[in-house]
Amino acid sequence: MNRTKLALAALTASLLTSAAVAGVEPPFNTEGNVLIADQFNNRVIEIAPDGTIVWQFGRGPNDITAKSPVGVNDALRVGRRTLISGTGVPAGMEPLCPNGCADNRVMLVDEAGKIVWQYGRFGVTGSGPDQLNTPVQATWTDRHTVWITDQANQRAIEVNLHKKIVRQYGTTGVSGSGPNQLNNPNSVEVLDNGRLLIADQNNNRAIEVDQAGNIVATFTIGGTASGVAFASRLSNGDTLITDSNNNRVVEVDSHDNIVWSYATNTQPGSNSNPLPTRAIRLKNNDTVISDQFNHRVIEIDHNKKIVKQYGTLNVAGYSTISARKLLNAPYDAKIIGENRGLTFSSSLHLYPS
To answer: Which residue in 32, 55, 137, 274 has the most C-beta neighbors within 10 A?
Structure first.
């Protein structure tokens, strides 16, 4: 690093430290802030470590227009932009549309809340060009493409910025467990070797798929998994699985043996069936868990102690000021600076305007 870069880094650190001392919240896109898909509040928020909301996209609960990501399930920071999965909500979850509301968009949103790229169309359900059916998760790649978990279409698709599908796993509209089949997939991660790690939720498994479409590894937590909502590959080669229907997060080794686990429904006052949806392992070995129907995001250390919590245990709510006590079924949470999709700001000119 040259002297100019060192000086800029020192100045940035000094400014952030001064802001913290003065009680000023860290600005947008600060490392250590938390990005949360606040599902039934129809918004994505970025919060400071104390819970203060520093950025919000979406107008909040009961807004079911294209101005909000309705039933948002996933959010990822890409440079200074945010990749958001507007999933929609099922029947009975939104008072203004008792039969369910479709969103069906994956969006790239800038800091000002402008949608700069989108795949899928608000309120349109389908499987044709530029159409989705319940997109639950999206992953940005270093190829400047987006992998979309298109759940109700029973597929994961890789889409380029010209909105063309360039790769697919899963047969569109076909639910199954055979070759090139999925059953309600819930996430896809691109591994360093180019393989895919797919949370195949209703098949109760996570599968690793090579570039030829062959399943080369299957993880079922020894046959006990039920509702695999998320899976990620850890730096030690293990796989972290969100075993939603069993209300637990489980780390398994390459032989599918349990190495570590944590249940989210054992605390007094907990929802008996909170259905956690995401677990992300941090660099410090803590784990961030989106504990969906406990209406909270928690960070636990490896000794299973809660070291941070946003939202109140088993209490749904909404605030435009702080998420420290009020969330509504958060589906996803990531710590800025900890995840892929953070290093591509130099290529933002590639995004369509």
So the answer is: 137
**pLDDT band with cut points at 50, 70 and 90 for residue 342:** very low
Amino acid at 329: A
Residue showing tokens 């109700």? 152
* Residue 350 predicted with pLDDT over 50: no
The pair of structure tokens assigned to 159 is: 């889409």
User: What's the order of all strands across the beta sheet hosting 278-281?
Assistant: 278-281, 287-291, 296-300, 306-310
* Mean pLDDT score across all residues of the chain: 90
β-bridge mates for residue 55, sequence order: 46
Cβ neighbors of 77 (< 8 A, separation 6 or more) are 29, 35, 46, 83, 334, 336, 339, 341, 342
Q: Which two three-digit tokens encode residue 247? A: 């209300």
Question: Bridge-partner residues for 75, per DSSP?
Answer: 84
Residue 228: closest CA among 204, 253, 248: 204
From the list 78, 31, 81, 41, the residue with the least C-alpha distance to 61 is: 41
- pLDDT (0 to 100) of residue 339: 67
CA–CA distance from 210 to each of 57, 80, 121, 348 (Å)? 36, 31, 30, 29
173 DSSP assignment: T
Higher pLDDT, 38 or 98: 38
